[in-house]
Amino acid sequence: MKKIINPYRSTENGKCFGCSTDNEQGLQMEFFEEGDYVISEWEPKSHLSGFKNVLHGGIQTTILDEIACWVVFVKCETAGVTTALNAKFKNSAFTDKGKLTVRGKLISKDRRFANIHAEILDPEGKVCSEAEVQYMIFPQEMAIKKFEYPGIDAFYQ
User: pTM for the full model?
Assistant: First the structure.
């Protein structure tokens, strides 16, 4: 697995709820690349639970959207915005049973849109939730100017 660096950390976007390791109330996700996938090994916190130590569905949806965003950064080499997200909850994701694996994979891409499959797996590898996420992607020049996309090299050492 290859570590993906968060180049936004030292910018004014550095407090992202999903990916900033400096946001104490955020998810503090970190990312790796493995083949076609962008992956995050993520330890859920108890305050993010809904019913009986089950990770809240809204938080799961946020996590699925966040991994999809990083797929756009790394696999599409640009920035974008979510236009659709269809989540399905298959099995409980617990906040007290260890790390969850979050992964996303680019399914298709054209000039304007990227379609990503994202999923959260429990410590045994069972799918807890999954989503089909559509991002409107921007030409790289626009992503650099309007969305501070730093270029693909900034994500690696």
Answer: 0.95
